[in-house]
Design brief:
alpha/beta, TIM Barrel, Methane Monooxygenase Hydroxylase, Chain G, domain 1, 2 domains, eight-stranded parallel β-barrel, two-stranded antiparallel sheet, 17 helices
């Protein structure tokens, strides 16, 4: 499929956490060039000079690193976009702040950068008193600064693009009036029409981005939105990663937006399938079959999983990948394994019959796959996987041990123990303890867990403490 001129398709390095290495970025550019993607946006939240220290210029060594990235993008025919995120503490009404922005962008222009972004996401929802005296809204202040920078940039490069990330960048944020009443309407009215506006969809991590939703936000912003897609981002949950396909978006979306940029997993080696399937989605004709694209991409990813011992099969890799599929769903094989295991454990051991054989076969396959991955020749890939694999393997070992003890003569009331899963060391620590205090219901609401409520009832029935001297 052909796209409108200027359609941006590619990758945002925009997560919280350790930025990618130079070698990883160069490998990314090779992937992108081979697959027809055209844009790389540099916006790692933990580059201090991107966000926390946005006023400070880069040192010479840092300049050379950025120059190398820009030159490699140009060699690969990729658009390099540099993003700056000043919203944590910018004073919109002070001319000196505008000069700081210009100096930062001037430094990048000298390195060969032509396209830029100003990001006002994930910042305090307030302005300084002197800013409030000049503008009646948060949005108006941000638009003033962004328009001024755009005009300044166009004097230096008439073809350069400027992207803008609003403070409410998804529908839920807008509904809760983040940034103030009418924020997005003000942006649509005040922001110069040549400036692209980022949007993540109904949610920060949107399971689906319907065309009707895009039509609505297009009318508000008075321009096609530019999708910042967090479908595969994992910086909010370090226990997970997502190697499922680009999904939940219809091909018609491509004509309704000014571009599709994906902000993927922190761990670069885990992004092969997300980026490969994004590229296929960008160019597919007709309908989009996400699962089919996933299986094809998994076959292409399999050579990265060469081991020094017994090799992995495509069936092993698909089963493993299905356990780390997408934020809102597991892959088909992992979901079937979970459902069958849950049904097994819900039944009395005497009625398990042939189900236990199927469980053992599948659980052992997955556990052995985790063990064999310790022998990966691609060590960066293993290190990206290792903690998640260890946790999965521990859970499988526990389930297999539990089932074995029950099959070997245990009754429903017989306690099961493991020499490898001891209280305080297994599933221990402050974070799991805190997680057990509240239970989240299917509608998203929270309430005290049963254990918390039971302890509260016990405490309520205790006699009042003796406070007499």
């Amino acid at each position: 499929m052909r796209h409108a001129p200027g359609f941006l398709a590619g990758v945002i390095e925009g997560f919280y956490g350790q930025p990618w290495s130079q070698a990883e970025r160069f490998e990314l550019f090779d992937w992108m060039s081979a697959w027809g993607l055209n844009t790389y946006l540099y916006a790692p939240k933990d580059d201090l000079k991107h966000r926390a220290l946005w006023r400070e210029p880069y040192f010479p060594a840092e300049e050379e690193s950025l120059r190398a990235i820009i030159e490699r993008c140009q060699q690969s025919e990729l658009r390099f976009i540099y993003a700056l995120s000043p919203g944590l503490d910018i004073r919109y009404s002070q001319e000196s702040e505008l000069e700081c922005l210009k100096k930062r962008f001037e430094q990048m222009l000298a390195l060969g950068c032509q396209d830029f972004a100003l990001l006002f996401d994930d910042i305090p929802d307030r302005m300084e008193p002197q800013d409030c005296e000049r503008w009646d809204s948060f949005a108006a202040a941000q638009c003033h600064v962004t328009n001024a920078i755009f005009g300044w940039l166009r004097e230096r490069n008439v073809t350069g693009r400027l992207l803008f990330c609003p403070t409410p960048y998804c529908d839920r944020m807008a509904e809760r009036k983040l940034g103030g009443e009418g924020y997005l309407k003000t942006v649509g009215r005040n922001l110069l029409p040549e400036i692209d506006v980022f949007w993540t969809g109904p949610e920060i991590i949107s399971r689906e981005i319907p065309l009707t939703h895009i039509e609505t936000i297009t009318a508000v912003l008075r321009r096609k939105p530019l999708i910042w897609d967090n479908l595969h981002a994992n910086d909010y949950d370090g226990r997970r990663f997502y190697c499922g396909p680009y999904s939940g978006r219809a091909p018609g979306l491509r004509g309704a937006v000014s571009g599709l940029l994906i902000n993927p997993n922190n761990e670069f080696p885990l992004n092969y399938v997300p980026l490969r399937t994004l590229a296929e989605f960008i160019y597919c004709d007709g309908s989009w079959h996400a699962r089919k694209a996933y299986l094809n991409a998994m076959r292409q990813w399999l050579p990265y999983f060469e081991t020094v011992g017994h090799p992995l099969t495509i069936h092993d890799l698909v089963l493993l990948g299905d356990c780390f599929y997408l934020p809102h769903e597991e892959g088909a094989e992992a979901e079937e394994f979970y459902d069958s295991t849950r049904r097994l454990l819900a039944a009395e051991p005497g009625k398990w019959g042939g189900q236990v054989i199927a469980f053992r076969k599948r659980a052992s396959q997955l556990r052995d796959c985790c063990a064999r991955l310790t022998e990966l020749r691609h060590r960066p890939l293993f290190y990206a996987l290792s903690r998640r694999l260890w946790e999965l393997r521990e859970e499988l070992d526990l389930l297999l041990s539990y089932v074995r003890q029950k099959v070997d003569g245990g009754t429903p009331d017989t306690p099961c123990r493991s020499d490898f899963h001891l209280p305080g060391t297994y599933r221990g620590g402050m974070v799991p303890r805190l997680q057990h205090l509240l239970t989240q219901h299917s509608d998203g609401t929270f309430a005290p867990s049963r254990e918390t409520a039971a302890q509260g009832n016990v405490a309520a029935n205790l006699p009042a403490p003796d406070t007499s001297a």
